[in-house]
Design brief:
Largest sheet: 5 strands, parallel
Distance between the termini: 5 Å
Strand content: 5-15%
Number of helices: 10
Length: 216
C-alpha cells in the first residue's frame, strides 16, 4: 500500500474535497490549509502572509538549493536553519517555500497521510528520508467547462468571470510549481496517476485513487 498520497489539482476539479474523501476512505490524516499554519510557526511569518503569497513565489536561489543542498529549514531567526546566514537573508518568498518544504517532509515522516499541492510530489521525491515506494503522486484535472461549472455552482464564482478566474488560478499554480522545480505542472511523466474528476465525480474519483493506493 502507498502510505503517502500527494494531490496536485487544477482549480475547479474538486481536488481538495477529493483529497479529504481519500483520507477518510483510508483512515489517514489530510493536510492542506494546515500546512499554512504549521509553516507560519516554522518561518515566523503570519499565516495570512503565507496564504497570500504561496502561489506567487519565484526564486532561482531556492531552485538551486532544492536540487542538491542538504538542509532542514529556514525562517526568521529560526534555530533549525541548516544553511546558515544565507537562509536568514533570503527573500521572504524563499523563506515561505522553504518552511512549507520542511513542514511537508515532517508530516510525511510522521506516517501515512494525504498532502495537497505545494509541490509536495517533487519535495518528497527529493527527500532521502522518505521511501519513494511509499508515495503515490496524483494529478487531478478536468475539462475547462466542467471546472467553470464547479467554480460557479460550488465555489460561488460569478458566471461572467468564472472562466477567466479558473484560468488565472491554474496559471498561478503552474508558475509556482514550474519555478520551484525543474518540472512542468500537470505533465503526465511526473505523476503516477492522472484522473479526470468529471468522469466519476468526487466520490468516485476518491474511491478510485484510494483503491490504487491500497493495491500499489
Amino acid at each position: 500500500m502507498k502510505k503517502i498520497i500527494t494531490i496536485g489539482r487544477e482549480y475547479g476539479t474538486g481536488g481538495n474535497s477529493i483529497a479529504k474523501l481519500i483520507a477518510e476512505e483510508l483512515g489517514i490524516p489530510f493536510y492542506d490549509s494546515e500546512i499554512i499554519d504549521l509553516s507560519a510557526k516554522e518561518s515566523g511569518l503570519s499565516p495570512e502572509f503565507i496564504k497570500n503569497t504561496e502561489q506567487s513565489l519565484s526564486s532561482g536561489w531556492l531552485y538551486t538549493l532544492l536540487l542538491g543542498a542538504s538542509y532542514s529549514t529556514t525562517g526568521v531567526a529560526n534555530t533549525r536553519m541548516g544553511i546558515g546566514s544565507q537562509a536568514a537573508s533570503a527573500p521572504l518568498a524563499d523563506q515561505v517555500f522553504n518552511a512549507q518544504r520542511t513542514t511537508i517532509i515532517d508530516l510525511a515522516k510522521k506516517g501515512p497521510c494525504v498532502i495537497v499541492g505545494r509541490c509536495s510530489d517533487y519535495i518528497l521525491r527529493h527527500c532521502d528520508d522518505i521511501d519513494k515506494k511509499d508515495i503515490l503522486n496524483v494529478f487531478i484535472y478536468a475539462p475547462l467547462a466542467a471546472k467553470v461549472k464547479y467554480a460557479v455552482e460550488v465555489l460561488g464564482h460569478n458566471p461572467e468571470t468564472a472562466e477567466k478566474e479558473v484560468k488565472l488560478i491554474d496559471k498561478r499554480r503552474a508558475n509556482h510549481y514550474n519555478t520551484f522545480t525543474e518540472r512542468t505542472w500537470g505533465n503526465r511523466s511526473h505523476y503516477d496517476l492522472l484522473v479526470d474528476s468529471s468522469l466519476l465525480g468526487q466520490e468516485g474519483t476518491a474511491k478510485l485513487i484510494a483503491d490504487v493506493a491500497r493495491k500499489s
